[in-house]
């Protein structure tokens, strides 16, 4: 399929980018050990099989019956140990009608989005001038999001949308701005001071997202 070919080309391009140099053919993650800045320790080569280098999870649609009407299915090192040390990971984005991936950031990776179905409006915000780069993407189109910058995607079409993303790290990290502000125990008065929102708005959002305080 043309979509899959394009996706493979995106992944190949990221594989060609600079990453930690390997002194052996591969280092399949030993997920029983702790992750480190350099990645997981390697499994014993005697226990590595071809299944460590294949992953079927991105072929399964995610459940979009939630508040954001969207689902992210990751293929990070925690789900796909073969990515360990390669400077690469992927994910599947399912967006129902009106679905949104809220404003978020990946501290450890740049991202490439490939639209496989529907129309996705995507954008990011620069860190200096806070300039917004916004684009409506159709099937077969891609967009890049530089490392660490706030960005978002939402379904701007008339039906479901499907995208695949590739990252320049085996563990890109994720922080969603709305959840960081309203889905924890950060005191409401502090949120009000740093966001200029009033008390009613903050408590409403905390209630929706499960926060307290």
Automatic annotation (TrEMBL):
The keyword Membrane does not apply. Residues 56-203 form the Cupin type-1 domain. Keywords: Apoplast, Disulfide bond, Glycoprotein, Manganese, Metal-binding, Receptor, Secreted, Signal. SUPFAM superfamilies: RmlC-like cupins. Residues 1-21 form the signal peptide. It is found in: Secreted, Extracellular space, Apoplast. Disulfide bonds join 27-42. Oxalate binds at residues 106, 111. One of its GO terms (molecular function) is manganese ion binding. It holds the Pfam family Cupin_1. Mn(2+) binds at residues 104, 106, 111, 151. GO terms for cellular component: apoplast. It comes from the Eukaryota. Belongs to the germin family. This is Germin-like protein. It comes from Linum trigynum.
